[in-house]
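Hey, resending since the last one bounced:
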Amino acid sequence: QVQLVESGGGAVQAGGSLSLSCAASGNTRGIYWMAWYRQDPGKHRELVASLTSDGKTNYPDSVEGRFTIARDREKNTLTLQMNSLKPEDTSVYYCNFVKTFPPPSTTYWGQGTQVTVSS
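The structure tokens again:
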């Protein structure tokens, strides 16, 4: 089992920055995929950044160049640095880990943290 606890959300003005953290505990061996998603009420969860265990990152065009995902292996923490925030970045942000070993693959989610960007 893996437990994920997010922190770092809050309110900021447009153009500002926030850093989200996702602390992982439990048996994190075999984690292959780590990501941040966001979700607005009534909408599907949207991927905003992903990182594989071999270091590959991926961002959608909407956040490319503004958001950076990183992993601190020593602290077992996943971070999302968000710069040049826009009002449309307002959402609830969730961290996501996918453990592929041992099989079967298992998905874990954090509880979510609110980010509010005012214009």
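The mean pLDDT is 95.

Sorry for the duplicate.
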